Structures are given as C-alpha cells and as structure tokens.
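Um, can you check?
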Amino acid sequence: MKKTILAALLVCSITFTFAQKQDTVIVPLASSSKVIFTIKDRSDLATLKNYNFQALFEDILAKLEKSDTSKLPGIDTTIHVVASNENWDNNHDSNDEDDDDEEWNSDGDHHKRSNRKTRQSFNMDLGTNNFLSKGKFPDSNNEQYAVRPWGSWYVGLNSIQRTRLAKKFFLEWGGGVSWYNFKFQDENTLITKDDIKTDFIVDPRATDPALGIDFIKSKLTVCYLNASLIPVLDFGGRNHKSRMWDSHSNGFRVGIGPYIGYKIGSYSKQVFEDADGDKKKDHNHNSFYIQNMRYGARLQLGYRGTDLFLNYDLNEMFTSGKGPNINAFSFGIIL
C-alpha cells in the first residue's frame, strides 16, 4: 500500500513541477531518505504517468535491503530519478570504464546496461554508385559506360566495432562485404575484354534487325571484401550506434577515415528479349582488368537516428591502360 501511495505521490509531484515551472522535486521518504525527481523535457510527462513506479521501487528497495546500508554510517541513501530526453549514456558517459549499471525501461522492467568501451553492431549500407572521370560524370561526354543513378545500387554488409577513445570521440572499425552495381544508361552496352584491354561498346546484336533482339538492361557488378577505420566525433556521446527506430537517439555525428577492399568477383549481365518474346539473360564472369584492390576515404554524417555515408575510391577502378580512367564512388544511408 505504501508503495502504491509513493508511486501516486511521484506522479503528482511531476505535475506540480510543471505547474510551478521548476526543474526538480524532492520527495522525503523517511528521516534520512528521499527521492530527487528531475524533469528536463515536458514531453516525458505522458510517459511518466503510465510508468510502473511500483516495480521500479520494489527493485530499488530490494537492492538496498540486500546491501544493508543501514549498518554502514555515512552511506547516502538518496535515490535520484532523472526524466529527460537525454539518454542514459549522456548522463553517465564519464563512467564508461566502470562495471555494469542498472536501468529500467518504460514498463518498469529492470535489466543490465553494459559500460564496455567497445560495442559491436551489424550495419547495412544502402545507396547508389557511379563513376567519375577526371572529376566529371561519363554521361557528360556521352561515354558508353555512363551509368543510371536509379538502379545502380550499392549494398554493403558490415560488422562494426565502436570504441570510445574520449567522452565524445570514438573509433569505428571493422569489415564486411560490398557490391557495386553499375546499370548502364544504354541498355545495349556490351563489355568486351581481349588481351589488350576492356572496352564498352554497343552490342552488335542490337543493330541486327534480323535477330530481333530487344535489350532491356546491361550492368556491371563487382564484389569486395572491405576493412575500414573511421574516427567519429559524436556530440550525443552514445557508446553504441544510433538506429533509425531508436527514439532516444540524439546529437550530431561526423566521421571520416580510410577503407580498403579486395575484389572477390566481377561479372557483366545483359537482359534481353529474343525474337519470340522470351526474356533471357547473359552473364559473363570475368575480371575485365578491374584492379584487385580498392582504397579510398569514407565520410559519415549522422543526426539523431539517421546516418549517411559517402565512399570515394582514390584509386582507379581499372588497371592503367587496360580500361577507362574512372574512379568509383557511392553514397546512401546506413541502416
């Protein structure tokens, strides 16, 4: 009964806080114990009205009884309850090297929160990719390898470790696999390779009316194994990655650093309809003189739960003299 009254008293105290435009309410519990309730965001009021304070205080009291602080003179039994849109990591980021701490969710359920300096996450890069030749897009010169932005998807699957180096400074490092998909503007494009070089030409079958072939799509796909090392300045100070569905994400993030990749496969693909109207596909698994290694710089920008990336390959995609002088790049969103 006392616990129920205490929960009601806390809710009333919150309402009184807003009515008096105060930031803090102190609720005496006994001769030497009290609750200090701090409200920093009015939007939290609706959540707190439905909060299971009874479960929270049962857990707190159980821990106090277990530790038996009454036998230890000078022990502070003050309970601080902070309600704010600031996340737990922001309020406690100075204790990141301590042991695990306790926290409660909106249902009053208790669970452990780890203060590890390094946290692992699985990230997905999803965006588009293109070429640059001496700072210009290929379609500015009507090159046969000009790419369509829509349909030229870049996909990356990464396992990333996030290590806190300072209060707001992190190092994101890890590896993964990625796919360049370059969809050519001219669906009649054919990639050929001989003993000298790789060429992008119009498929001769497209110009032969007797064959009756109608090309639908032409693209080049290249797959890499990658490793990256990105220093990140995170003003939110969270020691784990923010997610789009995480309502507690806040702050601005920016990071830039190097990456390196090793090619594990490449192929061209053409989709067409023959004279009978049947759809067919031609795959050509070939190196096309694409360099085995790629290296470049990666820029990451984030705000709240949204993170964007930009990758730019500093080395040319094809071996010098064996293909067009182009650099690949990609950009999109991090999921």
